[in-house]
Design brief:
The chain is α+β, with helices and mostly antiparallel strands. It is built from twelve helices and 23 strands. The chain has a seven-stranded mixed sheet, with helices on both faces. A four-stranded mixed sheet has the order 2-1-3-4, covered by helices on one side.
Length: 482
Amino acid sequence: MDNKFIQIIKNKWLRSITLTLVLVAIIICAYFVINFAIEKAEIADIDLTKEKLYSISQQTKDKLQNLDTDVTISIYNFGDSMMDLANQYARLNEHIKIEKVENLLAKTEWKTDYGVTDTSAFLVITTANREKMIQEYDLVTIDYSTYEQIDITEEKITNGILDVTTVVKPKICFLTGHNIYSEEYFQYLQNAFTEEVNEVEELNLITAGKVPDDCKVLVITALKEDIKEIERDRIIDYIKKGGEILLLLDPNLENVKLTNFQKVLDEYGVSVSNGVILEGDSNKMVSGAPNFVIATINSSSSITKNMTMDLNVCLMNPGRLTIASDDKLQEKNVTSEILATVSDKAFYRTDLQNSSQSKISSDEDANGNTIVAMLTKQIDDNTASKLIVFTNTVFATNMQIPISQSHASYALDFSNNKDVILNSVSYLTEREDNITIRKNIEVVNYEVTEAQNKMILTIIFTVPVFIIVVGIVIWILRRRKK
């Protein structure tokens, strides 16, 4: 091989290397230029996840679409993901502005007012008159039944915006003094009400003297004893002024005499049973437990009519709601709306000593019995009082319900229990734009009906066995051909 030929090969090799390096350099430069241009253009990311975990949820869009107050979200010491989320808010409504704070030299009042430091990570939501700080640790919570960490960033930011722009927060009062369940069982629910920009307080009618004039919803839970006559009269006065009531009432299993309280219910023409309803339809109970009754909220009801999917509620040992005849309701100027019923296979039991999960001779048919309803009492041409009643209290609590040997779930987290309660309050407080299914990025609990469980187990065990058998047959056939 002569020197000239070798030189030609070397030149070609050098030219190839040079062209390759130039091409690589062009690609790298193009990468940075394109990324820089996209960043400057603030093009929205495309969220391909099924649950749209990285996008502003529809409920946030609904809540903020009519926002007409200028809001600034100041972000300090967070990464790009927080800025991406914040920019989605800015694109959602022109009244929302985003500010990235590089240092705290001009914001020393935040250090004084909130105790933050240069190394803290937080955001501040401000209007002309109000301000709310959200620190990094506020953006996560813990599910103490699974000990999973849950990201609630969007919930916190959205409610923070509503918090600083809402002039008057609806007040929700929890009646105390005679309850079966202590206040701690409602802490989860009360926190949820607060996060929905409501004001929550406990109310003892004996000491308070009356239901506060600014109480939008009076919440009454299961009673262990009758209320006093003076409490009865004060609640009826509240009703006659157009007060709204959310009633979470267990069946009266102990046959406690509730004369005064029944007079309150008589205002709406309703009463709750002494026995419990059990389901006979395996598709309407949780994991084969007939006392965990699953019912679908009427899709045309006031609390679901603007939704695109069904809401299921899971009541635990619910009672049977008895509503007066149409004539009686008319006499009381009351109209009724059935929100949820049980299946045609359900049965009603008063013999609570019997633990049979199937219908026994002393049980009554409960075909289509009502377990959730709304009653509206017309006081005059301009005033009405609404009562939404659930025949169960436990479903709205943070009581831990075992669903396996190693796992439990809060009762409020079963089915759509939390959404049903929050939507009921949104309706009673005349905030129908807040009626929605809230974004949920938590771990989904394994809560299925008996039929669904059988199908899942069949798939889990049958499909792998089928694949193995097919593989063995194919292997045998191929060996025989050889």
